[in-house]
Write a structure and sequence with these properties.
heterodimer; A: alpha/beta; Rossmann fold; 7-stranded mixed β-sheet; two-stranded antiparallel ribbon; 32 helices; 10 strands; elongated; B: alpha+beta; Arc Repressor Mutant, subunit A; SH3 type barrels; 2 domains; 6-stranded antiparallel β-sheet; 3-stranded antiparallel β-sheet; 9 strands; about 15% strand; disordered N terminus
Chain lengths: ~700, ~250
């Protein structure tokens, strides 16, 4: 009897891990977008501000996991981006590393390829923007290039998705059969030195190529690698370090160059040699001709700044004028939703659940979502600035002023954005590559008086100031915020964020026409981060804040007792308002407000303001509504004459000034803190922002109120 | 030209012989050709012609065959050479902290080619560095601890670097990228920064011999905007001053 054999289907689930490496502006992200489409994630590397992007796709029955490494010019340990890129390449366990280079600046970008090859990775070279290069007349002998480098090479046009299929094929093939390519040889002296150091590194695990990299880095004396070697078992690590020092001395004395220059020249020499062999025709046309002509106007010594100011104005105008239209719809939508929910409960039978849904959830989250149109428009504007290449020019124009305060030219745009809302401003600091620059900008950014604080000024200024003074006072508040932000930036750079400036060697990429796809993806991604925040942490805190203002509530009201005893007569509405005011006074927020009264009394504040400030932590504009409630005014907004008159009656203008300063400077709203935590990578920075700004606010208000009281 | 070089080589060789004889005479009354050859690590046969030339110049006197001493004139010459050698050796060894063997070798190479004037001034500097404790008590000590000298030292505070930059550009010395005016073309001669800044400049292709053009300057005077290998870069004053350039004449 013949044996029955069932064919067992061979299901191999295979995942190829791919890393994308490349210079900033090499079009690496457009390749990443073309590969992964919508299936991507953005986050931060743990504890740092460096953006981490990863995603996946399936092709040819294989899963591809793609990681977009931070854009770097080389792999050293001087900046967090470079350190992360380097460590990912050495320890990330990627099957294939795609090195994306800009075909228009091959010389500089192929240096990175040489370094990646030295790490022992399995590289695929992606010559991006090949259409632009071809248009200038550059002709490369790709066959020769493949032969000389011994690695697969693919030409692509990332932002149009051209050549991406071939790139996937090449990656797939490279993962299947890693080519045994020859070691990268960087000249006789270098070979000798590396050889001597490698001699001590036989026990090291991993690819043989990686040893070249470690040996080179040891010779250059990079701390990180010295530590790696000190950490190995056995004494060969120490021997390798010593040998590397010997080789360094030998190279420096025999060439008269320091080792950093020597090694870098070897990389450039390698690229020069390669290009001599593979460039068949050099570009006939100056690829930068158009870009240069545009720059003659846009960064003109006299016209540059006015043009920049006009562009910024245009973006904000569009954001707030055009954004106001859908904002009204959203507002109406949430209003309707609130009423619909209220409608479930018959008149007079209000339940805590209704209050939670309407006042807590809808009020809190709605308050965040209402800014979404602004955010979408602003992010389109910022994406356009970035993708056209103008952002680098803006940084060039603004750097001198910003740098004087320890900031970077690129800090300017996020700070301007902060006038709209701190949250997109903080997210816009992603355009800053350097960690210290980015953190400094982020931490002082809430001092830019945001849109949510405008209702507060609109309420308070007319209450305390005569009409002629109103406009100058408003102007002063904004100006004071800016000045304090700059001063605090300087303080931060001299204290917590102390350290040498990152090297300012900023590339000015040629102007490019941005693709709608890239701009929309960037906008979508950042807006989604904003919304997700609204859906999670902000919802949580909103509920907490709601509970703090709603509980515990009173069972019996003083006002009812007074009416019953015939002491006063009030209309229904007045009774309702008085009850609400009593509830708030009795609630946790009210109690906290009263508890902290002694603390804020030296600033000229009473418990009512304290309670309202706790509300302002949820969202700055809530201050106005809370003041309305504690004064039993019912529904109030910044136009409420009644509330203004009450304030003018109860408080002096000095208290008004002290209050405005405190609200301008003190703790940013919870959403800002949540975004700071997310963008900075740890709660430490969010707490510093919260505590630091509140302390500064307290100090300034204290001095203003106390000194003012003496003078008046 | 060739003759001059030969002349000088010859002289330096002869100076070395004078020095050797002088050293030998410190320990013994006369110098034997054998000892001279041994001290100089050459064959005895090659010593004689040199001694003969020195004798012809009236610097060396033969007492007997194979035994020589210095004439008063020769002794003075020898003392001059020897003291130069001592000073230079001390300079390399105790001020620049080189191993004594290497210090000795460099001193030998250098002692012949300095002019009297140059040597004299160098000696004064060395005396000052070593002796003048009243002007700057820990001057030398600080130099040895400075990262310029000591690879293991922690990096200097910022003021140090900026001082470097300003002395270079103010003294009318070498030109940096920052000194160029828009439209100027130049060639990089040196990258005068350390650490991260240096590495970044090098990584961007700002290497010796690279051609740069200053295209424009920001409204506030910095950063500057340069073109290099078809790419455009903005550098702050600090970075631009670190890159020394030569202008084509």
């Amino acid at each position: 009897m013949s044996q029955l054999r069932l064919p067992i289907p061979e299901v191999t689930i295979r995942t190829i891990r791919v890393a994308l490496a490349g210079n900033p502006n090499s079009g690496k992200t457009s390749i990443f977008n073309s590969l992964t489409g919508a299936h991507q994630h953005v986050g931060n590397y743990p504890g740092v501000t460096v953006e981490k992007r990863w995603g996946g796709f399936t092709a040819k029955g294989t899963d591809f996991n793609v990681q977009d490494l931070p854009g770097t010019y080389s792999l050293t340990s001087f900046s967090p981006e470079e350190r992360i890129a380097q460590n990912e390449l050495l320890d990330g366990g990627h099957d294939v590393v795609v090195v994306v280079v800009d075909s228009m600046s091959l010389k500089r970008s192929l240096v990175l390829l040489a370094q990646v090859m030295q790490t022992g990775a399995n590289p695929v070279l992606c010559l991006n923007m090949s259409d632009e290069a071809e248009r200038t007349g550059l002709r490369l002998d790709l066959g020769q290039m493949r032969k000389l480098l011994g690695i697969p090479i693919v030409q692509t046009v990332g932002h149009r998705g051209i050549g991406v299929d071939r790139l996937v094929d090449a990656v797939h093939a490279a993962a299947d059969s890693p080519v045994r390519r020859p070691r990268l040889v960087l000249g006789e002296r270098m070979e000798k030195a590396i050889g001597a150091i490698r001699g001590h590194m036989e026990p090291m695990h991993g690819a043989a190529g990686g040893r070249d990299w470690v040996a080179t880095k040891l010779m250059m004396g990079e701390e990180e690698f010295v530590q790696r070697m000190q950490g190995v078992e056995g004494d060969w690590g120490g021997a390798a370090i010593e040998e590397a020092q010997r080789q360094r001395k030998w190279i420096e004395s025999s060439t008269g160059q320091d080792v950093a220059l020597f090694v870098t020249e070897r990389y450039f020499g390698f690229v020069d040699g390669l290009l001599r062999e593979v460039v068949r025709e050099v570009p006939r046309k100056d690829a930068r001709a158009v870009s240069d002509a545009v720059d003659k106007i846009l960064v003109h010594r006299a016209l540059g700044l006015p043009i920049f100011a006009a562009l910024m104005y245009l973006i904000f105008w569009v954001t707030f004028t055009l954004g106001a239209i859908p904002m009204d719809w959203i507002d109406a939508g949430f209003g309707w939703l609130g009423e619909a929910i209220t409608g479930f409960w018959p008149e007079g039978s209000e339940s805590p659940l209704e209050s939670l849904l309407v006042d807590g959830v809808i009020g809190g989250v709605g308050g965040v979502i209402i800014f979404l149109p602004n955010i979408l428009l602003l992010f389109i504007g910022l994406a356009l600035l970035e993708d056209t290449g103008y952002m680098a020019r803006a940084a060039f124009l603004m750097d001198r002023i910003m740098h004087r305060f320890g900031l970077h030219g690129k800090s300017f745009v996020p700070m301007m954005t902060g006038f709209g809302c701190s949250i997109p401003g903080i997210m816009a600091t992603r355009t800053l590559e350097n960690e210290r620059d980015r953190l400094t900008t982020m931490l002082v950014l809430p001092l830019m008086s945001c849109g949510a604080r405008l209702p507060i000024w609109m309420l308070l200024i007319p209450a305390f100031f005569a009409p002629v003074w109103r406009a100058p006072v408003l102007w002063l508040i904004y100006a004071f915020g800016i000045a304090l932000a700059l001063v605090l930036a300087l303080v931060l750079r001299r204290s917590v964020l102390k350290g040498e400036d990152a090297p300012f060697v900023m590339e000015l990429p040629p102007y490019r026409v941005p693709t709608a796809r890239a701009v929309l993806m960037k906008m979508g991604e950042r807006s989604w981060l904003y919304l997700r925040k609204a859906g999670t942490i902000i919802l949580g805190i909103s509920i907490l804040m709601w509970a703090a203002t709603a509980y515990p509530s009173r069972a019996e009201y003083d006002v009812d007792a007074q009416i019953a005893s015939g002491a006063i007569t009030l209309s229904d509405e007045e009774i309702e308002n008085a009850r609400t005011a009593e509830d708030l006074r009795f609630s946790i927020a009210g109690r906290v407000g009263r508890t902290i009264e002694p603390l804020i009394a030296p600033l000229g504040f009473d418990w009512k303001m304290g309670t309202a400030m706790i509300g302002a932590f949820a969202a700055k504009e809530v201050f106005v509504a809370q003041m309305g409630i504690v004064y039993a005014m019912g529904e109030t907004d910044e136009e409420s004459q009644g509330l203004r008159e009450t304030l003018a009656r109860d408080y002096s203008p000095l208290t008004g000034v002290s209050l405005m300063l405190f609200l301008l400077i003190s703790s940013p709203c919870m959403a800002t803190l949540a975004v700071t935590r997310r963008e900075a990578g740890s709660w430490r920075w969010a707490w510093l922002q919260f505590g630091g700004l509140t302390a500064v606010a307290y100090l300034i208000s204290l001095v203003v109120y106390q000194v003012g009281s003496l003078l008046i | 030209m060739t003759q001059q070089v030969e002349q000088r080589n010859l002289t330096s060789a002869l100076e070395d012989y004078l020095e050797t004889i002088y050293q030998l005479l410190q320990e013994q009354p006369i110098a034997r050709v054998r000892d001279i050859a041994k001290a100089r690590d050459v064959k005895a046969g090659s010593v004689s012609p040199a001694l003969k030339r020195l004798a012809d110049m009236g610097l060396v006197k033969y007492l007997r065959r194979e035994y020589v001493t210095l004439t008063p004139e020769g002794e003075e010459q020898a003392r001059r050479v020897y003291s130069r050698h001592r000073v230079l050796t001390r300079f390399f060894e105790s001020i620049l902290k080189m191993p004594s063997e290497e210090a000795e070798r460099d001193a030998c190479a250098m002692e012949h080619c300095l002019s009297d004037e140059g040597m004299d001034r160098l000696v004064r500097l060395i005396e000052f560095l070593g002796a003048c404790t009243s002007c700057a008590p820990d001057f030398l000590d600080r130099f040895h601890r400075c990262p310029l000298m000591n690879d293991d030292a922690p990096p200097c505070p910022d003021e140090c670097d900026s001082m470097w930059g300003s002395t270079i550009s103010d003294s009318g010395g070498p030109m940096s990228i920052f000194d160029l005016t828009p439209g100027d073309h130049a060639r990089v001669s040196q990258v005068n920064a350390r650490g991260a800044i240096r590495q970044r400049l090098l990584d961007m292709g700002i290497l010796p011999q690279a051609k740069v053009e200053l295209e424009r300057v920001a409204p506030a005077g910095e950063p500057v905007w340069i073109k290099l290998d078809g790419t455009q870069l903005a550098l702050r004053r600090q970075e631009a001053e670190a890159v020394l350039v030569d202008m084509p004449t």
